[in-house]
Amino acid sequence: MARTAGQDAPGVALYHAWWGLNEDVISFAERLAAAGFHVLAPDLFRGEVAASIEEAERLSSSIEQDAGGRESLAAISLAAIDRLAGRGQAGTRIGTVGFSFGAAWAVWTAGRREQVSASVVYYGSITGPTLAAGRSAVLGHFAEQDPYETAENVAAFEEGLREAGREVSIQRYPGTGHWFAEPSRDAYRPEAANLAFDRTVEFLSRELTARA
């Protein structure tokens, strides 16, 4: 799924949460396009969309626990970067944005494609050698109370990025929980979501445009 502000607009790959490519992701892509980006949101689950936490857990687990499924996720994630890179000149800068489940792919792709210069994660993280493999600057949006991404997880993520010599900014949002930026969820908090979106646009604009 693609949304564009024009063929010459900076490219951004948007990776969905464990719900699949739902209306929240499509709406977010449209907002990014309206803000001046060419957005490509790959469907990591090939058309499957979950409505409940139980469905999402089954869907994501069934894919991640299968070797072929993990290979498919990696291939689809990288294909989005390659497609965006194919639009521009050599040295084109690309951004990645990931929600929860998709946050890991937003960071992972930066370690596989040097064009990725800016990565934004919403309440999702990753640790290990992947952090040293990528060079993209990272902006993280995290909730105050989150059983999926605890304060310890976020601290480890930030520390790993800094140890790898990567630029990182971690933003925390008081009074929020996991999924605070997704309108279809009960945890949605519009004020925090809008602030995070504005910060995302500012960050991507700076990293992909001002220094291109």
Concise description?
By secondary structure, the chain is α/β, with parallel strands linked by helices.
Q: Could you please describe the fold and organization of this structure?
A:
Helices cover 42% and strands 20% of the residues. It is an alpha/beta fold and 212 residues long. The protein has one domain: Rossmann fold (3-Layer(aba) Sandwich). It has a 7-stranded mixed β-sheet, with helices on both faces. Helix 6 links the parallel strand 6 and strand 7 (168-177). It is globular, with a radius of gyration of 16 Å. The mean pLDDT is 92.
Q: Main attributes?
A:
212 residues, alpha/beta, Rossmann fold, seven-stranded mixed sheet, 42% helix, globular
